[in-house]
Design a protein that fits this description.
transmembrane; 13 helices; elongated; electron transport; metal-binding; single chain
């Protein structure tokens, strides 16, 4: 059996139906279409029969209001699309992490969550929401540093995480789960976990493969 067949059997089924990103994209395209068609009709068909004030308000709607709505829609679509795993993987330095998550034999937390279907979509974003629009200033700072290292090609292989991962990201889903609450040690260590005095990874293993096991992703020219 091929590796793809194994992955296909354990991979959670992606969600069906309309998505927010797709809806925003449709709204933006409709606004652009209505604005262009409306301006053409007003200028070349109805201009002579329209009151001057109506003509001005129509131009305002077509030149500024509808394009503004289209801009908001495309911006929203961009933010939504950036939550997808494919967006994270578009930086090739993330390839080892995405490959590990899809690996049916991996024991990392990312792979185990993926196999169980606990996070059916947007797996990267679900655990790394600090980069989101409402994330902390520290997360924005770190995100900018990561982007700067990438575009200037100055990162070091294998990449390493600087700082500590907040337990709040784990507890957001697990703190009220019956399986979590049944474990006595979770109750006993509740204060330490809430204050990040003890990390969830101490007992539950690494979320991603350790540095020595990651294949280099940097592309180098042949000598």
């Amino acid at each position: 059996m091929s590796a793809w067949s194994v992955w296909a059997m354990v991979a959670p089924e992606p969600p069906h139906g309309a998505t927010l990103g797709g809806t925003l994209e449709v709204v933006a395209l409709l606004c652009i279409g209505v604005a262009v068609l409306g301006l053409l009709l007003v200028e070349f068909v109805f201009k002579s029969s329209m009151a001057r004030s109506t003509y001005r308000w129509t131009l305002l709607l077509g030149l500024f209001v509808l394009p503004g709505v289209a801009l908001l829609g495309t911006t929203g679509h961009m933010f939504e699309s950036m939550k997808a795993v494919e967006a994270c993987q578009s930086c090739h330095v993330m390839d080892p992490f995405v490959a590990d998550m899809h690996n049916s034999q991996s024991a990392t937390l990312a792979a185990r969550h993926y196999r169980s279907g606990a996070i059916p979509a947007k797996q990267c974003y679900a655990c790394h929401t600090g980069y989101g629009i409402f994330g902390t200033v520290e997360s924005k700072r770190d995100g900018f540093r990561h982007w700067l290292l990438y575009v200037t090609d100055t990162w070091k292989e294998p990449i390493t995480y600087k700082g500590t991962y907040p337990n709040a990201n784990c507890l957001a889903c697990h703190a009220t789960a019956p399986a979590f609450l049944r474990v006595d040690s979770h109750k006993a260590l509740g204060k330490q976990l809430a204050n990040d005095e003890m990390n969830c990874f101490t007992c539950h293993g690494l979320p991603h493969p350790p540095r020595p096991t990651r294949a280099p992703t940097r592309v180098t020219a042949n000598p």
